[in-house]
Amino acid sequence: MLLTIDCGNTNTVFSIWDGTAFLATWRTSTEWQRTADQYYVWLSTLMEFQKLDVEITDVIISSTVPRVVFNLRVLCDRYFNCRPYVVGKADCMLPAPPRVDEGTQIGPDRLVNTAGAYDRCGGDLIVVDFGTATTFDVVDTDGAYVGGVIAPGVNLSLEALHSAAAALPHVDITKPQAVVGTNTVACMQSGVFWGYVGLVREICARIKAERARDMRVISTGGLAPLFQQTEKLFDDFQDDLTMHGLTVIHRFNKENN
Ligand SMILES: Nc1ncnc2c1ncn2[C@@H]1O[C@H](COP(=O)(O)OP(=O)(O)O)[C@@H](O)[C@H]1O
Ligand SMILES: CC(C)(COP(=O)(O)O)[C@@H](O)C(=O)NCCC(=O)O
Ligand SMILES: [K+]
């Protein structure tokens, strides 16, 4: 049984893949201090709770936070008796090598999204991932990652307003009733919501124009459906895209080793 781990700057997601389907998905906050023992107590409790009596034999990790990888490796060694594949490391091959400036450290989540989206949809894609940052990953015709865009995340933008301006409260994102807000919260939500709709539309249009071709836009991340409510920004929403990409990269390494 394969354990896939996607560690973002805010949350870390664990899924169990039986070769055809995900049996379970659990989420915890990302904290580099969390030890292997803590991960295991948490994981085994949830597995027991869901009556999942499975043996984990393989692990693949994508982490945008380099520091957490150490304890995840200890988890694999101590409790699952295996050596994990870590996306971005030399011993973890990618189905299609990225084409970017030499020396660039591409976020592993973006490489994983690329592999997952190409596997499901073929080439010429834009993957929009609403995480701590909002990333746009450009997938070429042959499935290679060829660059993209990094924008401040939705919650990060709201938090930035709150932390920099004394009179601006903490606000959760939601679709505002109108563009013109008649109170502080509505004004902030409008700025971020409609600003984001514009940002996504403009960036996708410019990517397509720059590459002189039509491209399918695939979104992932919990906030994507919120932005799809008003207009069709994305051709498809795939909540499990990153996890799917991890299974694709894992299979590729197993088959080519
Ligand atoms: N369905 C959702 N509704 C509201 N906020 C969400 C939802 N899903 C994720 N978020 C928020 O979006 C931000 C990014 O979360 P996440 O996608 O887990 O980021 P990362 O992958 O960078 O760790 C966080 O602030 C998280 O709380
Ligand atoms: C852009 C990111 C911070 C997004 O991370 P996330 O929001 O998923 O936590 C991450 O992909 C990253 O650290 N990238 C490194 C730089 C790059 O991808 O070019
Ligand atoms: K992410």
TrEMBL record:
Predominantly, its location class is cytoplasm
**Where on the tree of life does the source sit, at the highest rank?**
Bacteria
Functional pathway? Cofactor biosynthesis; coenzyme A biosynthesis; CoA from (R)-pantothenate: step 1/5
Q: Which GO terms describe its cellular component?
A: cytoplasm
CDD domains (alphabetical): ASKHA_NBD_PanK-III
Cofactor(s) listed? NH4(+); K(+)
**Sequence positions that bind ATP:** D6, C7, G8, N9, T10, N11, T12, V13, T132
**Which residues catalyse the reaction?**
D109
Keywords annotated in UniProt: ATP-binding, Coenzyme A biosynthesis, Cytoplasm, Kinase, Metal-binding, Nucleotide-binding, Potassium, Transferase
Q: What does this protein do?
A: Catalyzes the phosphorylation of pantothenate (Pan), the first step in CoA biosynthesis.
What is the annotated quaternary arrangement, including any partners? Homodimer.
According to UniProt, the name of this protein is Type III pantothenate kinase
The organism named in the record is Tateyamaria omphalii
**Top-down, what is the taxonomic lineage of the species of origin?**
Bacteria, Pseudomonadati, Pseudomonadota, Alphaproteobacteria, Rhodobacterales
Q: Its encoding gene is what? A: coaX
